[in-house]
Amino acid sequence: MHIYSFEKLETWQKARMFRKDIYHLTRKFPKEEIFGLTSQLKRSASSIGDCLAEGSARVTPKDKAHFITIAYSSAIETINHIIGAYDLDYISEEEYVAYRLKLDELTNKLNALRKSILKN
Questions:
Q1: pLDDT tens string 64-109
Q2: Parent domain of 100
């Protein structure tokens, strides 16, 4: 089986684990949120890794960096959804802080990856 370049990226691996964490977290959200916040949170969290994968197939560094920027934007959207989940008491303060820290790490890695690609 072929391993694609995006699968080797630490940033993508962290995004993959983060998506898994979000899917587990949203299982406890109210059922009436399944098409609301639950869906939005899952989609924005998934988009981080999706954009990294899609961008890895682009040819120019500028195109690759563009998709990393979109991944970063998805991470910021995810922060907003985490804030919403906390405000609505769907997650505890402890969970809120833990997920914010994970997203801080992920956004820092995305920024570093984008800068690295644009240097080439």
A1: 999 999 999 999 999 999 999 999 999 999 999 999 999 999 999 9
A2: 7-119
Q: Concatenated DSSP letters for 2-46? A: PPPHHHH-HHHHHHHHHHHHHHHHHTTS-GGGTTTHHHHHHHHHH
User: Structure pTM?
Assistant: 0.96
Do residues 77 and 45 make contact, with C-beta atoms less than 8 angstroms apart? no
- Residue 7 vs residues 12, 28, 32, 66, 83: alpha-carbon distances, Å: 7, 29, 35, 18, 29
34-50 residue pLDDT tens: 999 999 999 999 999 99
CATH of the domain at 93: 1.20.1440.60
